[in-house]
């Protein structure tokens, strides 16, 4: 079997991590099995669908590296195909016209609820042998309903939830086309999955209730239902279903907050799937390991701290040159001219071990691109004790005579500290203040390397007399 999976979002709102997990798993399953992954935009809800939402979906998938084999395919561009299938179903007796008005349907539902019955269409316009249908009302455009099988059950072996059985008596005759002829969601999904030869449908378990209806329509059309894998809900850190209303961040938000796509992908992979005890892994490893049998059955819970920790791991282990390129946009937002001053790659390499996000690296980099501080006499007196000045003068000489390596600068410090009987903080703090007008910097020998010997000596010489 040639595996074909799809991600089929509705572009009616922003896309959060829970949504993207429904793209990641079918993508990984297709890639693992050398199959095809298709993006289908389910935009038949014309009033709520927006191009901006489509753009965010495509950008988010591209950012994570979820490449497509086909798509995006837009349902609204397939309307003629859906109408063709509706006509075939009407002609073959698989569907029928229903003239029940919305008012009649609401009244029926109210009566059923008053009788403590499940609200459902009563089959008034369903043609049956020997049944006389009501006269067709004038000027009423009918909906088209699917003739759902009567009796028996819909049974499928869900790849995540196991065997699921739904009685056909629980299902009424689904509307597959509205009075204006536009097809409905559950109908379009079946036609698309059949036409696109989808073999595996991996999606959120909020679709479980749709599945028996879709299976019945698919079988009526002569198709073989795909394998279904319904993923448990992703909960937010408060234990509620993840949504915009409950404070979920969109993919763009994470991008703007300085997260790496590799970290997001790794984190998403673990939201409902596992491979032994593996916590940090590459995209390639994930694809190699992925199978449906390892999907979890319990709801996954979003953990912002875990995501931040993962982002730190990826930043810490990133190639400095690649990380510098990723950080540049954030640095430019802070007004940093990365082309003038110390090597930005070296600055990033110095800062990355202690940073959780690209924004933190950019903020740390500011120090190295600000103009040399201009200290007043009072500031020098307050931050550089007179007793330390002899040691500072010796340090300037030692740095002048040292080779331009981190190890040589560290040795220069040790030599001066030993000569003057000082502890490292007593000398390092004044040096940091002289260089940057702050006492908070990374390791001082590394700072000297990145800032450069000439610039460091120029700044140190300004504070000693």
Automatic annotation (TrEMBL):
Residues 322-463 form the Aminoacyl-tRNA synthetase class I anticodon-binding domain. A motif ('HIGH' region) lies at residues 9-19. ATP binds at residue 244. It is found in: Cytoplasm. One of its GO terms (biological process) is glutamyl-tRNA aminoacylation. Gene3D superfamilies: 1.10.10.350, Glutamate-tRNA synthetase, class I, anticodon-binding domain 1 (1.10.8.70), HUPs (3.40.50.620). GO terms for cellular component: cytosol. One of its GO terms (molecular function) is ATP binding. InterPro entries: aa-tRNA-synth_I_cd-bd (IPR045462), aa-tRNA-synth_I_codon-bd_sub2 (IPR020751), aa-tRNA-synth_I_CS (IPR001412), aa_tRNA-synth_I_cd-bd_sf (IPR008925), Glu-tRNA-ligase_bac/mito (IPR004527), Glu-tRNA-synth_I_codon-bd_sub1 (IPR020752), Glu/Gln-tRNA-synth (IPR000924), Glu/Gln-tRNA-synth_Ib_cat-dom (IPR020058). CDD domains: GluRS_core (cd00808). A motif ('KMSKS' region) lies at residues 241-245. It catalyses: tRNA(Glu) + L-glutamate + ATP = L-glutamyl-tRNA(Glu) + AMP + diphosphate. Residues 3-309 form the Glutamyl/glutaminyl-tRNA synthetase class Ib catalytic domain. Keywords: Aminoacyl-tRNA synthetase, ATP-binding, Cytoplasm, Ligase, Nucleotide-binding, Protein biosynthesis. Its EC number is 6.1.1.17. It comes from the Bacteria. Belongs to the class-I aminoacyl-tRNA synthetase family. Glutamate--tRNA ligase type 1 subfamily. HAMAP family: Glu_tRNA_synth_type1. Catalyzes the attachment of glutamate to tRNA(Glu) in a two-step reaction: glutamate is first activated by ATP to form Glu-AMP and then transferred to the acceptor end of tRNA(Glu). Monomer. This is Glutamate--tRNA ligase. It comes from Polynucleobacter hirudinilacicola. The gene is gltX.
């Amino acid at each position: 079997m040639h595996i074909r999976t799809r991600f089929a979002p509705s572009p009616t709102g922003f896309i959060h991590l829970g949504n993207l997990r429904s793209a990641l798993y079918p993508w990984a399953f297709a890639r693992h099995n050398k199959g095809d992954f298709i993006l289908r935009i389910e935009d038949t809800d014309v009033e709520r669908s927006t191009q901006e939402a489509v753009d965010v979906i495509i950008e988010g998938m591209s950012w994570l590296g979820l490449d497509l084999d086909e798509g995006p395919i837009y349902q609204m561009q397939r309307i003629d195909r859906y109408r063709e299938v509706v006509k075939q179903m009407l002609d073959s007796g698989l569907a029928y016209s229903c003239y029940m008005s919305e008012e009649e349907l609401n009244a029926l539902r109210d009566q059923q609820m008053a009788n403590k019955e499940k609200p459902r269409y009563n089959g008034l316009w369903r043609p049956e042998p020997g049944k006389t249908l009501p006269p067709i009302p004038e000027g009423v455009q009918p909906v088209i309903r699917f003739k759902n099988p009567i009796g028996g059950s819909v049974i499928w072996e869900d790849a995540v939830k196991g065997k699921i059985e739904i009685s056909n008596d629980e299902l009424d005759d689904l509307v597959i086309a509205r009075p204006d002829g536009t097809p409905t969601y559950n109908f379009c999904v079946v036609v698309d999955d059949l036409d696109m030869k989808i073999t595996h449908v991996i999606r959120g378990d909020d679709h479980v209730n749709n599945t028996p209806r879709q299976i019945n329509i698919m079988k009526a059309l002569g198709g073989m239902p795909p394998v279904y894998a319904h993923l448990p809900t992703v909960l937010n850190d408060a234990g509620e279903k993840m949504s915009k209303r409950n404070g979920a961040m969109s993919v763009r938000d994470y991008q703007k907050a300085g997260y790496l796509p590799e970290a997001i992908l790794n984190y998403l992979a673990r939201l409902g799937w596992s491979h032994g005890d593996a916590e940090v892994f590459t995209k390639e490893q994930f694809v190699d390991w992925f199978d449906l049998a390892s999907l979890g059955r319990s709801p996954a819970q979003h953990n912002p701290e875990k995501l931040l920790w993962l982002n730190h791991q990826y930043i810490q282990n990133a190639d400095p040159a690649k990380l510098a390129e990723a950080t540049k946009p954030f640095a430019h937002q802070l007004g940093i001219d990365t082309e003038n001053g110390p090597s930005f790659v070296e600055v990033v390499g110095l800062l990355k071990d202690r940073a959780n996000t690209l924004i933190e690296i950019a903020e740390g980099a500011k120090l190295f691109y600000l103009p040399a501080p201009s200290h007043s006499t009072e500031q020098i007196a307050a931050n550089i004790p007179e007793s330390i000045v002899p040691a500072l003068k010796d340090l300037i000489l030692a740095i002048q005579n040292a080779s331009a390596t981190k190890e040589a600068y560290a040795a220069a410090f040790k030599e001066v500290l030993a000569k003057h009987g000082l502890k490292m903080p007593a000398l390092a703090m004044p040096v940091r203040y002289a260089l940057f007008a702050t006492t908070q910097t990374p390791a001082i020998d590394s700072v000297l390397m990145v800032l450069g010997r000439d610039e460091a000596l120029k700044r140190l010489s300004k504070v000693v007399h």
